[in-house]
C-alpha cells in the first residue's frame, strides 16, 4: 500500500534523522506557534489571507522578533547579538549623553557604516543636524554661549564668523 501526504512526509523526515513535530490538539479558535510552542487564541495572531487558516504562521510577539532580526540583518548587516555586544561595549549607555540606554543603531547615511548604538534623543539630534560635523560644532559653540551671527559687510553681503 502506498503512503501519501503527511504519513509519507513524516516517514521521510524520520529516515533523514530530522525532527518531526507531533501534531498538537488545539482547541477551536486557537493556534500553536512553532517558535514559542505555545497555543494561543486567534486574537494573538495577525491575519494572513494566503494561509490555509487565515492567520500568520507565528504569533504576534514571535513574528515581531523575527521581523526585527531580519530588519537588522538587511539594513545594517548586524545580528541582534552583534547589536547587544556593541551595547555591552558601551557599558549599556548612549555614548553621547552617557545617561539613557542605547536602543537605536546609528549609521552614516552616505556609507551605511554602523557607528554605534545611541538613545533616541541623541540619534535623532545628529540626524536632524544632517550628520554634519560643522553644524554640530556650531551647535556646541552656541550652547557654550558664543553667538553665531553673520556680519553685514555691504547690502546683501554677509561675512560668516570663523
UniProtKB/TrEMBL annotation:
Protein name: Recombination endonuclease VII
Basic and acidic residues composition-biased segments: 13-35
Cited InterPro entries: Endonuclease_7, Endonuclease_7_sf, His-Me_finger_sf
Pfam families in the cross-refs: Endonuclease_7
Region (Disordered): 1-35
SUPFAM superfamilies reported in the protein's UniProt record: His-Me finger endonucleases
Lineage top rank: taxon: Bacteria
